[in-house]
Design brief:
This protein is α+β, with helices and mostly antiparallel strands. The chain folds into two domains: 4-104, no CATH class; 113-265, YojJ-like (1 (3-Layer(aba) Sandwich), CATH 3.40.1700.10. 56% of the residues lie in helices and 13% in strands. The chain contains ten helices and seven strands. The protein has helices at 4-38, 43-63, 66-86, 88-99, 113-132, 164-171, 209-220, 249-265, 274-281, 283-292, and strands at 137-141, 156-161, 181-185, 188-194, 224-228, 235-239, 242-247. Strands 2-4-3-1-5-6-7 form a seven-stranded mixed beta sheet, with helices on both faces. A hairpin with a 2-residue loop joins strand 3 and strand 4 (188-194). The longest helix has 35 residues, at 4-38. Residues 265-293 have low confidence and may be disordered. It binds adenosine-5'-triphosphate. Adenosine-5'-triphosphate is lined by residues 136, 138, 179-181, 195-196, 198, 207-211, 213, 229-231.
Length: 293
Amino acid sequence: MNSPLEQLTGELALRPLIISILDWAAVGLLLYLAFQLVRQTRTVWLIRGFLILSGAFFLSNLLGLTTLNFILDKILIGVAVAIPVIFQPELRRFLEQLGRGEIFSLLRPDRSPDFEQTALDQLLEAVRDLSEERIGALIVLEKSPIDERLLQDPGDTMDAVLSKSLLLTIFYPKTRLHDGAVLIRNWRVEAASVILPMSTQIPARQLGTRHRAAMGITEQTDALCVVVSEETGSISLAERGKLQRPLSVEQLAETLHRRYRRAETTSVFQIPALGDWTRKFFPASSSQSGNSE
Ligand SMILES: Nc1ncnc2c1ncn2[C@@H]1O[C@H](COP(=O)(O)OP(=O)(O)OP(=O)(O)O)[C@@H](O)[C@H]1O
């Protein structure tokens, strides 16, 4: 049996190892949260560009290519200075979530493909009904975080599960929230009554401010925007300031599925959400938690 002294020295020897493991686990968690924040947005391409530049910098240093190394060094310094500006919306949201104690919401399983599919189905069903009943609607699907300063009015925060009934209720003409746009963020209804920036382009004559607002927000961000016309019930999809119209619900579904499938397959960091793993081990409970909020 070990003497108390031997036990103590044994524990002391283990301590640095435990601290090291904790240290690396914390770093791993931080990196995971950061990747979750930028997952499937255009920011991953910026990170990839930065990593490629850094790789080229180290390679040029290794090979003694001094002029190239000098230039890459200056570019990397410039990029490092620009990063807080480029990532301003992401950093702001990260700090807000941290301050509100909501940062672990990034670990929630509601960002899974199943959750996205259900939300997309609900959205499409709502658009079908809105179109059939000729209820005007404007729905922004955020990809990269939208800088709120772009919006004329950020509207009323909702942070609610996306459902067909909720969308129909919001856009029903007699409700207080029906005017303006709904903002969908992470497949949840983030806000309603949002006033979007107007496009300066003049759309086809029969299209008014709702369609111009859809063009406006998609000119300035990488969001997609679905419009249902109150006058004709026609469905449009705005992307990069251009309107595709008129679309049937099936055509809209096909386009949105294509966009989101492509976003998934082109994601640079294919890191599954922790929720994906929890779903594997606890299939029933985790799928419920994804939809019950
Ligand atoms: N900047 C904006 N941001 C969000 N919603 C807007 C904005 N401008 C107008 N809208 C919405 O569009 C409605 C007015 O639509 P308007 O008739 O001018 O557009 P439209 O493009 O002709 O669409 P519709 O075919 O539905 O009539 C407003 O009541 C409001 O709900």
